[in-house]
Amino acid sequence: MKAIVPIALATCLLASCGEKKEAAAASSGSPTAAPAAPSAEVTKVTSTAPSGTAQAIHTVRTTAKPGDTITISGKIMGNASPFVEGRAVFILGDPELLTSCDEIPGDKCDTPWDVCCEPAEEKKQGTATVQIVDAEGRPLKEGVKGVAGLDHLAKVTVTGKVAEGSSADLLVVNATAIQAGK
């Protein structure tokens, strides 16, 4: 009986590691899977260069009001799934406040974009939700992961209007220009 418990525990731990790696692979997508062609609306936003000087998310979120035009920069990170499946929405994290796990020496995290080592309050203060919306202000019903360089941990600059309902606790930006790699 004593030998069965360590074997069962080891089996559970191995299964957990496998599940996490499978979840990481699923969230990062298959390297061979090509995203569907983006719509004209997404292409317009991702091919427009942001304007103005990019500011840190943690400073903008305390002063920006709905309707303000802002430019922010950061990395796509902030939780285990920074892209919303089937919607033109992602989370942008502030590298001045958050450190992704890939920048922590010796960290072997399978999902470094989840910033799992950061306290919840830091994540709250250091993230913004970026969305591309239709004429009625609703997020477009298409994913943007893989479009124009948008991927986990990609450096991104965004210009857009602060969405209605946005607050110092939850910064939501309706993007008019997105550029990855800057």
Automatic annotation (TrEMBL):
Which residue intervals make up region (Disordered)?
27-53
Comp. bias intervals (Polar residues): 44-53
- Where do Low complexity bias regions lie? 27-40
Q: What is this protein called?
A: DUF5666 domain-containing protein
